[in-house]
């Protein structure tokens, strides 16, 4: 058991180095960049804005539209720029995750458009996307019940690990992305691929929630530092 | 008077008699913030956060600067920088309803800038504008700036102190729309540039205390340089 070592030398419950930045795009109402190791994601939020065609708009709440896309050079071999089945599915999954966290009835008949571009894919792209979108939504000033933090957990060679890389993902026995609103203790996304025993599932959940809390702190720090660069300028005034 | 930066899900107040506003929500007796903003303790029963980002949320009685986008059968459509386009019915724009107009396009046409008041808005109908009152109407000259709508109160200041100071020092007329659009009614390009810098400073530093003094210093140094 002690023989097991992850390819990048991390401990089983250790996250990859995370870098996050807000307001990276000027044209979007809100945007964010999120990096977990080699997985790099940029997210842009437009809206709430009017929905066209108007007759399809929802009369009492705003719609959330999500487009998750991997750009052709994000993977080792060129990926076709058209949306694949996998991308459409992930878009839907992310949309449903954020449906539970945005207060939609504030802006009836409108739409909130979210665009996600994966710049470099190395596993856990959907959770990195969720982390990026969460920051971009805050940047756009949209009503959120809480920030959403997400992490993927999995099992490889009978070991439970957190934050899978691309290689680990391909060789894993099971992987499970989790997204939640940490301070409200609510889960927004839970998928699983592979097989786990009930005990393993419970342990993975615990590890995932711990990792999510770490990411949540990083997100909060990012938001604060985006404002406090100005505060520091005036130091003691 | 201490303002603090709050994030979504920051606990603001606890109390059964308190009510959540447009920017907050309530679980049990606790009121949490829903947006990124500034929170200041007040005596009001309705708890609200001053937003630092986001679009304009229309409310009745607000005076806004809009841009006409469409000419329709009964109204003009006006972009007011919100999540929904506003409408300006002809009946709210024309004072003498009995008079016949051969071409309403001459009155207000597409891309015209208007200063208007929101007279009705609810969740089931779009905001409706009126330009019948005094001081409202078409803006024919000037320069438009855009800023975050939530920061407009900082530009105006307490009892209009900040905006009056800016108007006095620059010696120009300024129209401030609650929707984040500001119009400088002048042809003097120098002053347009200075006002742009002032607005940018307010935009960036609205959450840092002592803003009025810094704006005053900025204006003084800029005006001394040019004169």
List the helices and strands and how they pair.
The complex is a heterodimer of chains A (237) and B (227).
Chain A: E1 18-22, E2 30-36, E3 39-50, E4 63-70, H1 85-99, E5 110-120, H2 125-139, E6 149-156, E7 159-162, H3 166-171, E8 174-181, E9 186-190, E10 193-194, H4 198-233
Chain B: E1 4-6, E2 11-14, E3 19-20, E4 24-27, E5 30-33, E6 37-39, E7 46-47, E8 50-51, E9 63-71, E10 75-79, E11 86-89, E12 113-122, E13 125-130, E14 137-139, E15 143-146, H1 152-156, H2 161-170, E16 173-176, E17 181-185, H3 189-205, H4 211-226
Parallel strand pairs in B: 3-7
Antiparallel strand pairs in B: 1-6, 2-5, 4-5, 6-8, 9-10, 9-12, 10-11, 12-13, 12-14, 15-17, 16-17
Helix pairs in contact in B: 2-4, 3-4
Short recap of the structure:
Chain A is α+β, with helices and mostly antiparallel strands. Helices cover 30% and strands 30% of the residues of chain A.
Provide structural commentary.
- The complex is a heterodimer of chains A (237) and B (227).
- Chain A has 237 residues and is α+β, with helices and mostly antiparallel strands.
- Chain A has one domain: GHMP Kinase, N-terminal domain (Ribosomal Protein S5, domain 2, 2-Layer Sandwich).
- Helix content of chain A is 30%, strand content 30%.
- Chain A is built from four helices and ten strands; from the N terminus they run E-E-E-E-H-E-H-E-E-H-E-E-E-H.
- The longest helix of chain A has 36 residues, at 198-233.
- The mean pLDDT of chain A is 91.
- Chain B is of the alpha+beta class and 227 residues long.
- Chain B folds into three domains: 4-51, Beta Barrel (OB fold (Dihydrolipoamide Acetyltransferase, E2P)), CATH 2.40.50; 63-139, Nucleic acid-binding proteins (OB fold (Dihydrolipoamide Acetyltransferase, E2P), Beta Barrel); 143-226, K Homology domain, type 1 (Ribosomal Protein S8, Chain: A, domain 1).
- Chain B is built from four helices and 17 strands.
- Chain B has helices spanning 152-156, 161-170, 189-205, 211-226, and strands at residues 4-6, 11-14, 19-20, 24-27, 30-33, 37-39, 46-47, 50-51, 63-71, 75-79, 86-89, 113-122, 125-130, 137-139, 143-146, 173-176, 181-185.
- In chain B, strands 9, 10, 11, 12, 13 and 14 form a six-stranded antiparallel β-sheet that branches.
- In chain B, helix 2 runs parallel beside helix 4 (211-226).
- The chains are: A alpha+beta (237), B alpha+beta (227).
- The interface between A and B is medium-sized, with 37 and 31 residues.
